[in-house]
Structures are given as structure tokens and as C-alpha cells.
Amino acid sequence: MTASRNTTVNIDRIHSELDVVTIPRSYQTELMEQAKHENLVICLSTGSGKTYIAVMLIKEMAHAIRASIRDGGKRTVFLVKTVALVQQQSDYIRFHTDLSVGKYYGELGVDLWQKERWVDEFEQHQVLVFSAQVFLNLVDHNYFTLYKVNLLIFDKCQHSTGESCYAGLMNRHYNACHDPPRILGLTASISGGKITPGQLNKVAKQIENIYKARVASGSNREESNRHGTSIQIEHIYYLSYKDEICSNNGSIMIDFDTIESILADLESYLSKQKAEREKIEHDLAESILMTDYLGLNLTEYNALSVDYTIFLQSEYVNLPRLRYYLKNLIHTGYELGIYGLFLAAEAFQKALDLITDSDAKELYDNSSQRIDCLADDILRNLVDINLNNDQNLFSSKVLHLFQRIKKDVDDDNLGRCIVFVERIYTAAILSKILAFLSEKMLLENKNCLKIKYLTGSRANIGDAMMSAKYQV
Fold first, then answer.
1. All domains of the chain, ordered by start, with CATH?
2. How far is the C-alpha of 78 from the C-alpha of 93, rounded, in Å?
3. What is the DSSP letter of 439?
4. Closest C-alpha among 26, 57, 357, 459 to residue 223
């Protein structure tokens, strides 16, 4: 027999990507055996093989899912938080078992599927990996019931308080199920936030109450810790740029005062707009109350409705976005320094060009002129004057961060460095600053540092109108 084309498969690469396990570790076997007989929340460090324990349990309980649903068979459901994890976990289970695995998340359009389509999916697949909200919606609409699930796995189950999908599923459906599935929770931390050692038992009890399960880590912690990801925490202390530099340098502080002044004018305008909107809404509500079923007062009501619609459709609603830009501009300056403020102001100029508002043209023109003056003249000159004064040009936080990166570069010890920030603005501007500093300070090693930033798909900051290449 001849093949129509040659195909080369890199088995080593596949094995590497899927973290192939051939012989389970003792703590994995121990925890799997416990999970066969009771609901369990497994708390092990990252990299210790929690997902493989789930695979082992899926195999142990697979006798219940090999039959058709119509013939009394059940299904295993694996819940995750993100689309990326749906893909990752479904691939992992498919590789380590002989079971049919389905994957489901919102972007596939599953919210539009009818019940018949879901019946086919549950017949076709024995293990189903869902983003949590999709499965919750499915059960809420009675397209599938928990008593037809033999094993329900929650990935990263520490995020389970309040109105989360995990908590909603347990509270609304699991407790009322006459034949509930076995529960397996997987987590590297029993809390989604910071807690003190004294709060540990309380938080563990909360997790156990939510999942009707026992928290377990195995008896051989030394072995599991040895296989988990080890981390070293290094604390670096820095001084506030606002307190250290701005308060002692009038030429720098005046730039922040200028932006605060623009923001104050905007807040005043928005306050007046809010009052006008509230008046129109009040008049419209009064008119509705005075309009009877005979249509009396209908002319006045229609006129007010038109006024209200025109008001809502006016582009003044873009002004809160302008306020958002200004606040981010101030935040960026205090976080990153005057050079960061300069870069952010340049991006802000481009963002202003994208916003038009006939009702607020004077305010826009005034804001645009002041920002142009700030970015093109004052800040540019201030940056030029301080090019050799890093203490003024950059915040202490930025300098300490770069020095820490530089240390690994100089020691030839830098593999990958990930810097997490809270705001899109900060990510975009910080990447430019680090690139500037690498050109200035790394000299011979400057080409070894390649810097990119990743943000959400809604990022929109002037010239950071990013392609999908720089979005996650």
C-alpha cells in the first residue's frame, strides 16, 4: 500500500508539549485512590502533576462513561476558566486516554446550539471539557443534568466564591442532585487572594463546604514539592517618584499640574452634562406618568423621547473616555517617571485625534492644544535636559526593575522575564522605556534583550491600536 503523501511527526516535540507521564508518582497514586472514594480538592504546587491525577481518576472511573447515554451511560465533565485551558486540558486527556474528548467554549457559538445538538455531543464524547460558564448555562437551561455526570472536575478551583460559575453550579445544582457526581478539585492554592497563616483553616473549610469535599495534599509533601515548580522571592524596595522627585522639582511638577487642570475642566463639563441628562430623564418620566391609554399628552411625550434619544446619541459620551485617558496619563507619569509621561502624552495626542464631539468642540480644542504644548514643547525639552539624569527621567521603580534585568543579562543568566502590570497604558509605555534603557545601558548586550508587551484585545492607546500579534 502506498501513501498519497509523506508526513513527518516529531514525537519528541509532542511529548514535550503534553508532558507525557508513564509511571505515576507515589503521591499521585495515593491521591487518586482517595478521590475514588470521596470528593477531594487536591492542593499541590504548580508542576507537580495535578492534571495527571485527574487523568488517572478518569481512567479508573471510565467504565461508567463507555456506554451510550441512551443505554444508561454517564459522562465526565472537566471545567476550566479560560479558552486556552479548554484546548490544553482536552489535548492532554485525549493524549493520555483512549476516550473521545469534546471541547466547548463561547467563541465556538455554543450558546446558539439547540438541545438536540447538545444531545448529539454528549452521545459522541465520553469526556467533555468546558469553559465553566458554558456548562453552567447548559445545566441552568436543563439541556443536561448532573446526575448523568459520573465525575465533575474543577480546574483552579480556588476561584469559587461569591457569584463564580463554580460556586453557582454547586449551590444551584449539585446540592439538589439525587445522584450527584464525584467531585475532584485541582488547585495550587486554596485561596484566590492573599491570606494570613491564621486564615488558612477558615479558607480551607470554605473550599470544603463549597465542593462538599476534603482538601488533601498527600502524605509525602517532600516528594510533591520536589516535583513542583520552585520559586525564589526577591523583594526590591523603591521610593515613590511623586514624593521623591516631583515634590522637589517644580519644572517636573508643573507638568502634572497642567494635566490635573485639564482634568478639572473636563470634570466640570461632565458634571453639567450629568445634570442635563437627569433633567431630561425626570421630564420624560413625568410625561410618561401623565400620558394615559387614550393618548392624551402623547405629543409632549414623543417630543421628549426624541430629545432624550438625540441627547444619548450625541458624542458627548466619548468624554468619559477622555477622562480615562487623562487619569491614565497622570498614573503613568507617577509610576514610570517623566520619560514615561512624555511617551504617554504622545500616544494621548493621537487618541485625541480619534475623538470628535460637536457639543464639546471648545473643550476638545482647548484640551488638545494644551496636550500638544505639553508633549511637543515642555515635556520634550524636559526630557532632553534630563537625558543624563536617570533619577529625574525615570521612577525609582523602573530603574530598580531594569537593574535587576541587567544583572541577569550581565551574568548571562537571562532566559525569559515576564513583568506583570495592572494597566494597558503601563504595559505599552514600559516596553518602550525598557527598550530605551537597553540601548543606553546594555551596550554590547543590547541586542540580546527583545522586548514586547501583551494586552487584552480591547487595548486602544493612541499608536497602541494593536494588531492581534500583540494581544492576548
1. 11-227 (3.40.50.300), 246-470 (no CATH)
2. 10
3. I
4. 26
